[in-house]
Design goal:
The chain is an alpha+beta fold and about 270 residues long. It contains five helices and twelve strands.
């Protein structure tokens, strides 16, 4: 695949001036659709892209660190005993359930990503971390914020199978066509688990020791700013799934290909701020 072409003036490239994204973006329970491009890059190239992004995009309002754009994500992933989600069996290939924690927060997000007609929507609810024990009960508790999630886990016979953690650099911007987001995920580690308790995120199998995952998220057509990035660094989109890499790396399923295109093409339409 060739790098995305960018239209240029004879002497300079015109970059629109945008506003930062709203801090409330990550607080909505249901997410709007967006397009996403994924790339795997070397740590050296990731550093160059990080510098590029910091010069052009704003820090994530919910992040911290010296540049206010870094945080850790730790998620518990669910699957059936037969690993139907991993194998993309029937409707299991269209949905993914996980419980996501940011840094060492005392609250977590119960998340479901659902793919319909090539598009992915996200529903998630914020609950105190101590309430995760309710998901182990045999009957969903009526009136609990996470009861919808509990019901779906039970109907689909989903159980926790692994934990995935990584450090993310996130830069954002509000454009005339909506928010855009660039993330770099590194130090991706996973550990097998069958419990609803988070393990030490510094332990586990290192999934991509020599690679970093770059994701570009945007609505409508690809913004000029991202076209410039893709062209300048000669980037080539490719599918990659942290969950599929974790399952194979942990030896939970004997599968030679951890992540391949579905139906011979890339799946690039997902939900913003995933």
């Amino acid at each position: 695949m060739r790098p995305v072409n960018v239209e240029k003036t004879p002497h300079r490239v015109v970059i629109p001036i945008f506003k930062p994204m709203s801090p409330s973006t990550d607080q909505r329970e249901n997410r709007e659709f967006a397009a996403e491009l994924k790339f795997t890059v070397t740590p050296l190239l990731a550093e160059q892209i990080r510098d590029w992004a910091r010069a052009r995009l704003s820090p994530d309002p919910n992040a911290s660190g010296e540049r206010h754009d870094v945080y850790r994500i730790t998620s518990l992933y669910f699957d059936t005993e037969r690993f139907d989600v991993f194998r993309r069996q029937g409707s299991y290939g269209r949905s993914k359930f996980r419980i996501r924690r940011y840094d060492f927060a005392k609250t977590v997000f119960l998340e479901r990503k659902l793919k319909t007609r090539g598009l992915v929507s996200k529903r998630r609810s914020l609950v105190p971390i101590e309430e995760l024990r309710r998901l182990a009960e045999t009957d969903p508790e009526r009136g609990w914020l996470g009861s919808w999630y509990h019901k779906r886990l039970m109907v689909r016979q989903l159980k926790p199978v692994c934990q995935i953690s990584y450090h993310r650099t996130a830069r954002v911007l509000m454009t005339p066509r909506g928010p855009i987001r660039l993330t770099l995920d590194e130090n991706i580690r996973s550990v097998a688990t069958n419990d609803l308790v988070y393990a030490d995120a510094d332990n586990g199998v290192l999934l991509m020791p020599h690679q970093v995952i770059l994701e570009l998220k945007f609505r409508a057509e690809m913004p000029v700013l991202f076209k410039l990035l893709v062209e300048e660094f000669a980037l080539h989109p490719q599918p990659v799934s942290k969950y599929r890499l974790a399952v194979t790396s942990l030896g939970l399923v004997a599968e030679s290909a951890a992540d391949t295109p579905v139906n011979g093409r890339l799946n690039t339409i997902v939900c913003l701020s995933s």
